[in-house]
Specification:
Length: 86
């Protein structure tokens, strides 16, 4: 499809078929560029830096939650330990 669009764009420009040929060629070029991006399939590569940042942020949040739960657990143990056994 990209090849056909490219040929159509070149034909429209070179033959000057319509008054708005440059505008149409620009529109077709935009579609060609988008199709090329889809073909290369590098979207995940483009956002991988963001994925790593978000993962690090979530990992730190999970570690904070874990430490917080341990802190609460030990505080409850400290408060109640003498009442749990005879």
């Amino acid at each position: 499809m990209k090849y056909k669009l490219e040929r159509t764009r070149k034909c429209i420009l070179s033959n000057d078929i319509v008054v708005s040929a440059p505008k149409i060629a620009k529109q077709i070029q935009a579609v060609e560029t988008l199709l090329e991006r889809v073909e290369k399939d590098q979207f995940l590569d483009e956002i991988s830096k963001e994925i790593h940042k978000e993962f690090s942020k979530l990992r730190r949040r999970a570690e904070f939650m874990e430490r917080n739960d341990l802190k609460k657990a030990f505080a409850l143990m400290h408060k109640n330990i003498w009442g749990w056994w005879d």
